Amino acid sequence: MTPTGAIRQFSAAETAGLLGPAAAADALAGVLRAGLDPESCPPRGAMAVPGGGQLLVMPAAAGAYAGVKIAGVAPGNPARGLPRITGTYLLLDGPTLRPLALFDGAALTTLRTPAVSALALRHLVPEGRPLRLLLFGSGPQAYGHLEAVLAMRRLAEVVVVARTGSPNGAEGAGKLAAHARGLGVPARTGVAAEVADADLVICCTTAREPLFDGRLIAPGATVVAVGSHEPEAREVDTALVRRAAVYVESRAAALREAGDLLVPEAEGAIGPGHITGTLAELVAGRMPAGGTASCPQLFKTVGMAWEDLAVAVALFEAAGGGVQ
Length: 324
What we know:
Layout: E1 8-10, H1 12-18, H2 21-33, E2 45-49, E3 53-62, E4 65-73, E5 85-93, E6 99-104, H3 105-124, E7 131-136, H4 140-150, E8 155-161, H5 169-182, E9 187-190, E10 200-203, E11 222-225, H6 238-243, E12 245-248, H7 251-257, H8 259-266, E13 275-278, H9 279-283, E14 297-300, H10 305-318
């Protein structure tokens, strides 16, 4: 229990070390099973900041807790040796709105986003033979997603693809491949066309245009795209979206923010009803699970405030905190 009036402060290292992606995914599943409806989650607030950055505000409330993330997206930061994503998460007691804890917002995001993907993959990717994973990106989310996949499935190989034109892309891809080898997984760098041989493709980039030719994705393969929450930006192309079974965190959020779906819709290639199902439906067992051999599967995530809250609560309680 946190003493009355005391605010527990979690450093980035504490946030990263208290929970693994599997436990964070369990926390997300728990709030969905308890009845939380992502469709009713408040929309993300966004404001442009002079200099090219963006300020995001993401509030949520569920059960005995409430919380808000204030995050900054500063595209120029990597060139300054600073993280692209900054921010703070404030966790509150729900009934009294008394502040309980502060978390490093970037570290929380780095944990919760792979956990969301891991929860979806539990239902979309059948257990069985080891998977060939192809990763686009080499930043914190790519490392987090590698850890999340390793926590739930066996991997035969990891191929890391550097995004064309990305600063230090080839060097970053090489470092991530070396990291994967250090975890005992055969790993190397590769090229985008190798998606044709992948069982699982994960896109963790800041790309605004498609990363690969969606016609190459094999039926039965699964693609996860987490890099964008903007209506004009996308990591996957219309060809993939049109032929895939599409899963999202929330229909409302996806149709507000997911450029991966909104651009094909604007082109007339798909309609709003093209979404096959949601994360909540998968967790509740209301959708076919375990993969399909007839078409690819796409899980598109934009990141939602209820996810931050669920993981922040799990971290707080894992550290011995609790509402009074």
